[in-house]
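Why predict the complex rather than its parts? Because the way molecules touch one another can change local conformation, and only a joint prediction can capture that. The input here totals 282 residues.
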Amino acid sequence: MSHEPESSSPAPGASSSGFGVPPIGSGADPLLRATGLRTSFGSLDVLKGVDLEVRRGKVLVLIGPSGSGKTTVLRALNALTPPQAGVIDLDGERIDFAAKLSKRETAAQRAVLRDASGMVFQHYNLFPHKTVLENVIEGPVIVQKRPRDEAIATATALLERVGLASKRDAYPFELSGGQQQRVGIVRALALRPKLLLFDEPTSALDPEIVGDVLTIMSELAHEGWTMVVVTHELAFAREVADEVAFLDGGVVVERGTPAEVFTNPQEPRTREFLDRLLRPLE
Ligand SMILES: Nc1ncnc2c1ncn2[C@@H]1O[C@H](COP(=O)(O)OP(=O)(O)OP(=O)(O)O)[C@@H](O)[C@H]1O
Ligand SMILES: [Mg+2]
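Output of the joint prediction:
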């Protein structure tokens, strides 16, 4: 199958100083559809049949209480923690986690998911003994076998775009949290993924630098990247999300546009969750 972009022209609003053309053109059809994802850890059933859909060039924000399985969903989508059951349809390929497959077939299916997405972690997860540049080119050069010169050029341009050109040869411990997270985003982008996955990317940051990271994420969204974002930043979600899904008790309880879910939630559990988030002291 082809991995070529549907459209080679940048999304509206993208500029020559942007993050590069997203690898997947925007459109209304789903890039990824997950059906019936089930993940258990021992006797703990965490995902009990999660269904969700991510349309091309769109942003899905995933919200839900602590422990509801948001991270587990993201880790299922990129096969870091493959679910025990469920189906993911991704850009023309189908991965059925319950299928009885050989080791080789299983590995090939996981690779489809792993190669399709770039993940941005809550705690950055940079290699401490590698420089910023080495962190960013590791995936493209070692995993994707791209030419080193090309990977360095891409990494350098992306670092410049997020204001970190001067930190190219620094080590993670020499960077602030916000700077490390910007490197985390650049590292994901350098893989030229079809899908960007963000797991509470700003929740470990000091409040005054949260905005820097959210601004970069908004710019990515406007440039047409397809994104799944776990976040409690409701203002960001309201502005940037095309769709919001509320996860609770191992299932998606409610989904809709930000206006639908935030202003007029239909399910009592969604309402309770949003009330607690908006009025934490009551
Ligand atoms: N590797 C694991 N082994 C055992 N239990 C796990 C593992 N990973 C997650 N869990 C459990 O699964 C449940 C869901 O965890 P998950 O990290 O997906 O929640 P979350 O919604 O991301 O929560 P938070 O908002 O606190 O990040 C929790 O009860 C957690 O303890
Ligand atoms: Mg989590």
